[in-house]
What we know:
4 strands
Amino acid sequence: MLNKSYTEQDDEDKKTIWVRTGFNATDNTCFIEVEDNGIGMTKTEQERCFEPFYTKKQIGEGAGLGLSIVFGIVKASAGKISIKSRKGSGTKIEVILKAEAQQLLHEPELSGATDANGSYAT
């Protein structure tokens, strides 16, 4: 999702991407939103953007698989994905997934040093 947001920008100096994540305790879901200030998409482009091999890029610049792969992963996870865009006004893609508590079978091995707060740096 980030790649699509970044590569679709016209002006290299003005590219901005926002990523927001959160948890909704009411319905036990988590979300990720990716938004950009790029060129946006027409209604037709929005309707087709999750299709495999659909791209507005020139030949050799992209395969058109990124958003179709994201769509497949979200659907396989029983999640929801939505897109809001207007030509000339950027795009926002939101993914919502059901949150599940699972007990770890073993503690993950973390490598790297800890920062001042005791968090691991990777």
